[in-house]
């Protein structure tokens, strides 16, 4: 079937399109939109008001940095939950003021005082000619003049001061921690030892085997005297010793890390994930799986807490348990191996 003379062929359409591209310079250049001046461009009082606002924001940032240092040195965590919470909140609020002051001031400066003229910068082969470089230098100088750096000394001083002080919020804590104790061997041992009773977290109530039914779980800490729980070291030691206790049917237990480490189907495993140390506390009753909420590492507590999914590479350490003469659950020893993530001095 022959093509109609009234319709162009695909080749003709392609050639026509190519011709349009070649002669695209025939279309008029829309140019730069008309510049609309801001209030600060036409009203000196508005410009001065914006300058004061920006200066105040930079000063607030500097005060926030100083507040961070005060909070870091004056409100140290005292080992209690309330003390840690207060220190964290003060540090966070002060650092937020420091960062937000710089950020909001920079945005407000750019929107109200810096030049907002639009310019066309034609592309040229590199390197640029000396004439173009000279024009670029002039443009940069003009930009500096438009930003008002030379005639706004107070604002410039506030900005430099805020930016110069802010790194102290990070540098001072890092420098002051150089002398901290980095003895990772402390992870080899916890508060658990032979005869220490298992107590519920956080009320510290000793737990009997009869208190648990099949399928029930309990969050466990060592039963220590009340006065010890008030010491500064208690939070650190408690964090290493936290345990999840689960009662299974004895016949469901396929393996343990130590022979006889459970008691009548009750098993106890460290809650500190062996990946990066997050608390493992999500229990799935039907599969006997423990899930770490941070990175989804999954452990089978019916099979020695072996890893069945996720980035963890080691089972959760098991706490060997039994009961004392009064029927209370007690530890027979410390964990079967060091708790938490692997470290360079770990033997296994």
CATH class of the largest domain: Mainly Beta
Shape field: elongated
Structural class: alpha+beta
Total domain modules: 2
CATH topology assignment of the largest domain = Rieske Iron-sulfur Protein
| Count of β-strands | 10
Q: What pattern of helices and strands is seen along the backbone?
A: HHHHHHHEEHEEEEEEEE
CATH superfamily of the largest domain: Rieske [2Fe-2S] iron-sulphur domain
N/C terminus separation: 82 Å
> How much of the sequence is in beta strands?
5-15%
Largest sheet: 4 strands, antiparallel
Number of helices: 8
User: Helical amount among residues, as a percent range?
Assistant: 25-40%
Rg over CA atoms: 34 Å
The neighbouring-strand order within the major sheet is 1-2-3-4
- Mean pLDDT value: 82
Poorly predicted regions are 1-5, 7-24
Plain-language structure description:
By secondary structure, the protein is of the alpha+beta class. The chain has 2 domains: 125 residues; 146 residues, Rieske [2Fe-2S] iron-sulphur domain (Rieske Iron-sulfur Protein). It is built from 8 helices and 10 strands. Strands 1-2-3-4 form a 4-stranded antiparallel β-sheet. α3 packs antiparallel against α4, α3 runs parallel beside α6 and α3 runs parallel beside α7. It is elongated, with a radius of gyration of 34 Å. The N terminus is likely disordered. Pfam families: QcrA_N, Rieske. Keywords: 2Fe-2S, Cell membrane, Disulfide bond, Electron transport, Iron, Iron-sulfur, Membrane, Metal-binding, Oxidoreductase, Respiratory chain, Transmembrane, Transmembrane helix, Transport. This is Cytochrome bc1 complex Rieske iron-sulfur subunit. Belongs to the Rieske iron-sulfur protein family.
């Amino acid at each position: 079937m022959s093509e109609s003379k009234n319709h162009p062929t695909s080749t003709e359409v392609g050639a026509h399109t190519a011709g349009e591209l070649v002669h695209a310079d025939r279309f008029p250049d829309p140019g730069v939109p008309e510049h609309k001046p801001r209030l600060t461009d036409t009203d000196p009082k508005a410009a001065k008001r914006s300058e004061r606002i920006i200066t105040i924001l930079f000063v607030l940032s500097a005060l926030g940095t100083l507040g961070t240092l005060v909070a870091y040195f004056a409100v140290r965590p005292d080992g209690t939950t309330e003390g840690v919470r207060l220190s964290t909140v003060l540090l966070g609020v002060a650092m937020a003021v420091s960062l937000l002051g710089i950020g909001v001031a920079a945005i407000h400066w750019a929107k109200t005082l810096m030049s907002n003229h639009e310019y066309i910068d034609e592309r040229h082969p590199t390197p640029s000619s000396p004439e173009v470089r000279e024009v670029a230098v002039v443009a940069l100088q003009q930009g500096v003049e438009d930003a008002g750096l030379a005639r706004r000394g107070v604002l410039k001083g506030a900005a430099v001061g805020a930016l110069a002080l802010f790194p102290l919020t990070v540098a001072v804590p890092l420098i002051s921690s150089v002398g901290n104790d980095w003895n990772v061997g402390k992870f080899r041992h916890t508060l658990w030892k032979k005869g220490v009773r298992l107590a519920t977290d956080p009320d510290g109530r000793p737990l009997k085997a009869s208190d648990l039914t099949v399928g029930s779980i309990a969050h466990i800490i060592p039963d220590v005297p009340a006065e010890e729980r008030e010491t500064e070291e208690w939070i650190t030691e408690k964090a290493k010793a936290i345990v999840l206790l689960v009662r299974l049917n004895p016949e469901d237990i396929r393996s343990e890390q130590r022979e006889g480490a459970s008691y009548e189907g009750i098993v106890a495993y460290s809650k500190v994930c062996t990946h990066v140390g997050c608390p493992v506390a999500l229990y799935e009753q039907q599969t006997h799986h423990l899930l770490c909420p941070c990175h989804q590492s999954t452990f089978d507590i019916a099979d020695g807490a072996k890893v069945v999914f996720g980035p963890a590479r080691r089972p959760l350490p098991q706490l060997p348990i039994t009961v004392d003469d009064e029927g209370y659950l007690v530890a027979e020893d410390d964990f079967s191996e060091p708790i938490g993530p692997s470290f360079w001095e770990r033997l296994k």
